[in-house]
Amino acid sequence: MGAAILLIPPICLFMAAVIDLFTMTIPNRLSIFLLASFMVLAPVSGLPWAEISMSFAAGAVVLLVCFGFFALNVMGGGDVKLLAASALWFGFSPALGAFIFQTALWGGLVTLLVMLIRSQADRFAVIGTIVPAQILTTKKVPYGVAIGIAGLMTFWSSPIAVSAMAALKQ
Predict the structure, then answer these.
(1) Are the C-beta atoms of residues 59 and 45 closer than 8 Å to each other?
(2) Which of 76, 97, 147, 168 is deepest in the core (most CB within 10 A)?
(3) Looking at residue 136, what is its pLDDT?
(4) Is the predicted pLDDT of residue 98 greater than 80, yes or no?
């Protein structure tokens, strides 16, 4: 079980980042899989029920806050669902704060990079595009890239990851 706990979130976050980069969408199945796998694996992970409950609370809080951003047309729906499903795996812990902070930091960097690339779109057309077409043709930003990078950087300090790593060492 420990290996599944340590593999599922990073793989899902990596997939979300790559898919979002090339399609500007994050498939619902990734967020649903993150939610479902947490529901299956958390009870057998060794985490106390109180901590598992707080993980669901963290996911709900992130969902509500991000839904507000979605309503203001600041975030896409896929980004909101992915952040909320990912928050489950972090729980209310310092790792969640690090994840949110890193997401914001990488989101700003991705946005600046996308703006720079779009400002040079004519040059990419001349040399042949090495940039995914969606980056040049839409007004969206692939924020799933930022979520994926942040998740890959911070997941390892989440309570469930720490518990799984400790169990694997035994």
Answers:
(1) no
(2) 147
(3) 73
(4) yes
Residue with tokens 């169990």: 167
The amino acid sitting at 144 is: G
| CA–CA dist 105, 100 (Å, integer) | 9
pTM for the model stands at 0.92
Are the C-beta atoms of residues 99 and 33 closer than 8 Å to each other?
no
> The tokens 């839409």 sit on which residue?
138
- Contact of 142 with 20, CB cutoff 8 Å: yes
Provide long-range contacts, Cβ within 8 A and 24+ apart, for 7-15. Answer: 8/33, 8/34, 8/37, 8/41, 9/34, 9/86, 9/89, 9/151, 9/155, 9/161, 10/151, 10/152, 10/155, 13/82, 13/86, 13/147, 13/148, 13/151, 13/152, 13/155, 14/148, 14/152
